[in-house]
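OP here, attaching both records as promised.
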Amino acid sequence: MSERTIREQLQAFGLQKIINMIDGDPDKNIPTLLNWVDRLDRTDSLLEQRTAFRRVIEDEDNMWGNFIKSFWTDVDDGVRKTLFENFFVNACLIGMPRQEKAREEHDCNVPWAILMDPTSACNLSCTGCWAAEYGDMLSLDYDTLDDIIRQGKALGCYMYVYSGGEPLVRKEDILRLCEAHNDCMFLAFTNGTLIDEAFADEMLRVRNFVPAISIEGFEEETDDRRGKGTYQKVIRAMSLLQERKLIFGASCCYTSKNTQIIGSDEFIDDLIARGAKFAWFFTYMPVGVGAPTDLIVEAPQREYMYHQIRKFRETKPVFAIDFWNDGDYVNGCIAGGRRYLHINANGDIEPCAFIHYSDSNIHEKTLLEAYKSPLFMQYKQNQPFNDNLLRPCPLLDNDGKLAEMVHTAGAHSTDLAQPENVDHLCAKCTHACEHWTPVADQLWQDSPAKAVV
């Protein structure tokens, strides 16, 4: 059952009262909120986050303290309250203990977030994107999406992320799901070109939908990969969201062509000025039979991003994550249901958005059955994939590891256009792995995180 227990209801009620009180005087009452969180987090599942949060709030000159307070000046009151209740209360304080209980009971990974594709359709055709080959062949209907969320909540998952294809092709169903599950947070990786005034107004109404807008740098870099005119449409979307005081962020893929731009101070400063509250960085992955390999970053480029993102965290008021270079913060790979998984538009339950192999389908198995499947158990048994947490990925950073797990599990390719042999895919990443290994090993040797692992 996904209904809250009496204890969970009392926790939510108490914290909601504090959230309402904070609106009157954030400087005075944010510490009160933290004291409540301390009492409610009886299992210390958020101890590290609570400690870091308190440290920045207590330092009046801390950039992060000012960033947190900007949610009272830059964000609509109703949107901010919904974010705190659905993200901090439901997804973290209530959801994480429920997930941990399910992990112990079932001896399998149970994710904090579920990534799913409402459709394979997209209005763009970006270089190196596997979805560009799929067309509008497949989609998950509303009832299936709704059932995934209901199953997920029963196991403690209140965070849902849409990808595709272009998820906003399904605007009506996405908004309908926001209304049906107003206790959840929804995020979408979107190219941003379908965000118009009407949809921005709907976002302001439902309050629990946040876009992560894909952008490749400035106009030249974005249009080069995504098509002429895309950059200006993205900037227009950001303007509409900022005007309405809505929360949004950027999704940035760094390749061999754009790394110096996408990792520059000028680019991140521009995103902040346009209202972005977070920036999520991904490195290019050569997924798909015809995917170009020349876009894979070289080791010096990846190292550049490693240093830049860490610098940004000390100097830029934006929440930045690099999903490949931040393995030391999350103990390696988070895929395979450890913290997240992916369900494609055909219903195939995959360990990662970049790993198109599966032995389960949502039309045939429940989420829990998929978590116990051979492929997901291979992930659980092998994570972390390397003692060096700066080499977290079983595909890009550990040559042949993905192929070993896929073969052991008897999983199959889920590529919707042309099935890709897993050995062929791994071979495309061998060069990158070999060149990143000595760099990562030196960074890890010098890393303070090494001492606590």
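Record two, same layout:
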Amino acid sequence: MLIFRSLFRKYSKAIAFKNHKIDANGENNVPMPSPIHSEKDISMEEFLDHWLQKAIEMGASDIHFECYRTYVKIRYRIDGKLQMIRHLPINLHSGLIVRIKILSQLKIDEKRLPQDGRFSFSHGDKNFDIRVSILPGYLGECVVMRLLHSDNEKFSLQKLGARDRDVQKLENLASIQNGIIIVAGPTGSGKSTTLYSIIKKISSPERKVITVENPVEYQLEGVNQVSVNETIGMTFATALRSMLRQAPNIILVGEIRDKETAEIAIRAALTGHLVLSTVHAKDTINALTRLFDLGVPSYLIAATLRGVLSQRLVRKLCPHCLREGKFDPLIFKEIAPDYEIMGDISIGESKGCEQCAGTGYKGRQAIMEILPIGEKIQKMIDQKCDEDSIRKQAKSEGMETLREIALEHYTHGIIGYEALLTLLAEMS
């Protein structure tokens, strides 16, 4: 630690901010979504801490420091959306980068290649793992810091924000002893959180759990976790082969992205293991097509697949400024001509307040399409039936689609019109 401090002083002097005091608010500011502490002179160490603390207080998942010709832009990702926070003077850029690199144990003098690192940060009684990505840009290095809460209590099926009947379906899937369970969705849809919640639900002292991830985001108590490192040949497939020699009961594979990984995962499922993994697919039925496209024989998919879950995270209307909105049946008929409204309609609108930083949104809601693989669908997979046929059968067995659940949330005042249209556009 003394070595890092010494290096920090050395490089701080070289870029002329060792004895320089800076304003916590910077210069060339744009309005903050929420009030900031009173202005005072602070060191670079305190300066970075200040923006980390603000990000935590505002519920941000990521901090972006982006370098431009005359200023550094700070943006926070809150509830999945980037929000502009502040412009900082360009002369603070070098000191900020040095501070972040020292904390992350990265090479301070390397400015030409991307670097990844991490460090820990505490705010009040909350502990965070900060995952750092530094990318050399044309005008200077840009930094993204991912804030990962170290508290594993959030990994609970009940805390995913899904409907009670969806949680019950998840618990039924989690009780399966062997086979494969797939979670599908785009980046940022909460797939990892759902997988961790399932792992926490089913892990016990009597069952050995091993995960292979790229990278390991959260440390789970009692779980053996392995990180992918493709630069040294540690791929998902390589790690998965070695994991099978460790005699696990439950295996989590961060992502099935190639035929080799898929075939090893299926072989593990055939020999009595429970395998959890993800694929990038639009919905549950499209996930089946994705496995076909990887070249996995349909009879093996049919023999091992136990369930598929597809999910999205949609922004919820802020409860502090929520008010009743007007329902326009003509507009609704245009976007959902085939949807049958059940029960009373309660459209919500949020105009923005101090609690939601003027955005009108606070928190996110998980929307889950869950497909248990029954005997009929198993036969259809074996026969490699088309998506429409399998979807029709799944719906006849009670599967609710992402689209239907989103429309239900809209007519119950949980999500707004904008969030509904965004999701419908993704599903089209």
